[in-house]
Amino acid sequence: MNEERARALTEKALSFASADHTEVSVGAGVQTAARFANNSIIQHVRNRDQGLGVTAAFGQRVGGASTNDLSDEGIRACVGRAEAAARSSEPNTEYLPPPGPQDYMSIDAWDDDVVELPHDTRATAISEALAPVEAAGLRAAGSYTTHANQRGIANSNGVFGYNRSTHACYVQTVLTENSSGWAESVGSALDQLDVPAASRMALQKAEAAKDPTEVKPGAYTVVFEPAAVAGLTSIVGWTMDAKTADEGRSCWTGLEGAQVGVPALTMRSVPAHPILPTSPWGEQGIAASDTIWIEDGVLRNLIYSRFWAQEKGREATGRPANLVIDGSDATTEDLIAQVDYGLLVTRFWYIRFVDPMKLLITGMTRDGLFLIEGGRVTRGVRNMRFNDSPLSVIKKIRAMGQARPTTLHGLQVVPPMLVDEFHFTSGTSF
């Protein structure tokens, strides 16, 4: 769907509208995936989709509808359903009319190589990546996926925007009899991926984690790899809502402008990031911009919706579509070398809230937990459960390394971190 087609479809939908305010979004995309297990490709799929969505408002009565039928009749029917839903809805007291024309930043997020990647080239890359795993007598599973999306938005107040983007991701897990290793390689362009390196890393971790030992639960000095960091920082990004904070329903209440992390920590959103870019617009088509959430450890901004920004006389921030934390030139090995006794965490899973008012969460390690002794990794450790708060973690960062992209917990570019006194509460049998 090119820009001309997106504009024609949105204008058609608006021409059928009778509501006080109408917002239209259109999109088309192609997702291609090769999935593998037991060292063999088991599925190769390609999915194409297109659609149109309409939000209609009569006063503050708001309704929405969507369709995959982009004929004139299909669009007219979709607009009618949205308006019928709006008329039958209770008023939404936080609804604001859509904005007027916006100045959208140019985001270069399209790579023809991602779109045109042949099936056999993808399959060859997987086969070559799995060859060392098979030679080691181990098993691997994972996927190599690519996405290409074109989107347009428009509204009855004169907004129109168009954006296209691509994304590629290779993920691999290697299994032994009693351990596993995991790695990913992601980017918006094909030349940003390193499939062989991801495969080597997953294999190396699986072999290093064989015959894991047990360690006692307690507070440990920990080196978090980027995927593990992302599991914690995603909780920060999801919860920084200004309205709940101002109403006393959040761990962030009273913290705006306060020191919440170490001075070395700056966390921001960068829509035009060269590796993991996002959309040039956010809520209701408001133009996206770079946003600093935490600067030098100080909480500079919470997430302000259009409604709450108007209530408080602030600028609307929109939600963080990506999170970026700049690290240093240090490697993960450099961080490990600073630890006399501690743990190296590859990633987390099943992260759940324990006490949202304290941002206390729990989760488990997965696919590579290692013991660090005398500044080096000595052996694998059985997975452990943690109970801790990201608010506590960001105050105990001792050092950070080179930032790397990860999409395990949303779009993030974050560094490995060396953190003191991270609390593990129990062990596992695996």
Structure description:
Strand 9 (291-295) and strand 10 (298-299) form a beta hairpin. With 430 residues, this protein is α+β, with helices and mostly antiparallel strands. Helix 1 (3-15) packs across helix 2 and helix 4 (119-135) packs parallel to helix 5. The strands form three sheets. The protein has a six-stranded antiparallel β-sheet. Strands 10-9-8-11-18-17 form a six-stranded mixed β-sheet, covered by helices on one side. The protein has two domains: 3-193, 2-Layer Sandwich (PmbA/TldD fold), CATH 3.30.2290.10; 212-430, no CATH class. The protein has helices spanning 3-15, 72-87, 112-116, 119-135, 195-208, 226-239, 242-246, 306-312, 332-336, 390-393, and strands at 21-37, 40-58, 61-67, 139-155, 160-175, 180-187, 218-224, 267-269, 291-295, 298-299, 323-325, 341-355, 360-373, 376-380, 384-388, 397-400, 404-406, 412-414, 417-427. It is built from ten helices and 19 strands.
Topology summary:
Blueprint: H1 3-15, E1 21-37, E2 40-58, E3 61-67, H2 72-87, H3 112-116, H4 119-135, E4 139-155, E5 160-175, E6 180-187, H5 195-208, E7 218-224, H6 226-239, H7 242-246, E8 267-269, E9 291-295, E10 298-299, H8 306-312, E11 323-325, H9 332-336, E12 341-355, E13 360-373, E14 376-380, E15 384-388, H10 390-393, E16 397-400, E17 404-406, E18 412-414, E19 417-427
Parallel strand pairs: 7-12, 11-18
Antiparallel strand pairs: 1-2, 1-4, 2-3, 4-5, 5-6, 7-19, 8-9, 8-11, 9-10, 12-13, 13-14, 13-15, 15-19, 16-19, 17-18
Helix pairs in contact: 1-2, 4-5
